[in-house]
């Protein structure tokens, strides 16, 4: 009788744990290629057209769109910035007169 209870308990535990797993977790999604293509990874070369132009919200959005970045920001010479690297963010660095001097991702 104790062996039957132990076997039954093991079976119940296995069923309970099986209910916690997600089906198809090891199989890649069908839309994986679409996700990679629209990953939001920044390509700064595509936004280099902005160098020499005066920074504006419209130019920022145009540069963000062309670079494929998810986020973008204008950085003035004395702005405080965070130091974490984000591959989905475009930075437009300006001089004191808001003329863009450098374009980079991060």
UniProtKB/TrEMBL annotation:
Pfam families according to UniProt: Inhibitor_I78
Keyword annotations of the record: Signal
InterPro entries linked: Prot_inh_I78
Signal sequence extent: 1-25
Residues that span the membrane, as ranges: none
Repeat recorded as keyword: no
Record's protein name: Lipoprotein
């Amino acid at each position: 009788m104790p062996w039957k209870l132990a076997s039954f308990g093991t079976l119940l535990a296995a069923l309970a744990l099986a209910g916690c797993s997600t089906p198809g977790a090891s199989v890649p999604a069908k839309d994986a290629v679409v996700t990679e293509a629209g990953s939001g990874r920044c390509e700064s070369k595509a936004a280099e057209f902005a160098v020499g132009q005066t920074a504006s919200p419209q130019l920022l959005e145009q540069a963000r769109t062309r670079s494929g970045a998810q986020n973008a920001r204008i950085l003035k010479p004395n702005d405080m910035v965070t130091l974490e690297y984000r591959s989905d963010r475009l930075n437009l660095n300006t001089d004191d007169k808001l003329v863009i001097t450098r374009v980079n991702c991060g």
